[in-house]
Amino acid sequence: MTTTVIVGAQWGDEGKGRIVDVLTNHAKYVVRFQGGANAGHTIVVDGKKTVLHLLPSGILHENVKCVIGNGVVIDPEVCLAEIALLKSNGYLTDDTQLTLSLGAHVVMPYHKLIDKLREDGAGGSKIGTTGRGIGPCYEDKVARRGIRVEDIIDENRLRERLEYVLPQMNLYIEKVFGAPTFDFNEIFDKYLKFGAELKKYVYDTVVLLNMAVANRDNILFEGAQGTGLDVDHGTYPFVTSSSTVSGGAASGSGVGPTAIDYVLGVVKAYTTRVGSGPFQTELDDAMGRKLRERGGEYGATTGRARRCGWLDLELLRRSSMINGLSGIALTKLDVLTGFDKIKVCTRYEDDLTPHYIEMPGWKEKLDSADSVEKLPSNARRYIEFIQEQLQLPIAILSHGPARGSEIMISNPFKS
Ligand code: IMP
Asked: Is 75 in the pocket of ligand 1 (CB under 6 A)?
């Protein structure tokens, strides 16, 4: 196996960062293929905390090359701030470790403003976005008026594109929201400077990655958000604006689907969701609050409290189908320690009410288990039930917050 795609199988925040961190040890390339600075993970190495929203956490491993693919929307301000943070913490000493796609779209100041203005005025239809301008940037991409990385590194191209798009954006901001408009020169100068600073990282990543595929280098495609937030397959319209599913790895990087060997779906041992939208197994009660406190369920990007609920196998079966999952990584099993009973939704009734089965909980701490056999018997029953119901193997199991508290049952790169 040489190429593995990691996707969130629920609504994001499944603990993908942690699984990516484990598998990065086996990868030569880590690639982001969708989303932007709406994602976020906090990585603690040797007591030093680094929060990244855009750059893959693989950047903390000096022998790993990180690629931001064409399907990502890049906020140059965030990108440069993360580069500066990494350098000041002693990382990214070799600039060839990071490559940005020429074709990735750029998040502009008007995208962020429009995202905020829309949400502020949406009332009950609020999506609960992260406010990072993601939706408006993807809209411009599809409307064919976007500005790409290749434009900000070339003065003439940037002038031409901005002269075309800015009047349209300003008209929209003024007429629809009555908000102050943007000055051409201000944006032009600022983004030209960003482009000049980023230029050394920019390359044709399609060629780079296909050469790596031909070389049979291990490549890890790191999905952001989750299947329930996919623009096609998620709980529309309460979704993000990109293809968060495994198919997005091909279109968002320019590597053909036949080059993908393994798709790993990351599944939290229960379910969470940030922002608005349907959530069948949500627990709006003391049990939900208990899951939130124990699991530290607060967003890394916005700090918002996450909605919590039981595991939903109906959602996961669909997620498995859409992603063509080869196996799953089950995370945060330790959060369920101490519950007398654990419920699992096995299917929905006709009116979409979840049908639950109840399983006995366990009281023993899981930290010291370095194999499935060493887990408490009720925890083993829980994971066996999940495997059986989903007809999928659990490849990795994480059961504690610290690096190392995971059980590698079968390594996707070696299967
Ligand atoms: P947007 O991606 O900022 O447009 O937000 C759209 C929806 O996706 C909102 O419900 C967000 O809370 C959700 N979302 C975006 N990024 C993440 C993430 O990394 N984890 C979980 N939810 C996310």
From this structure: no
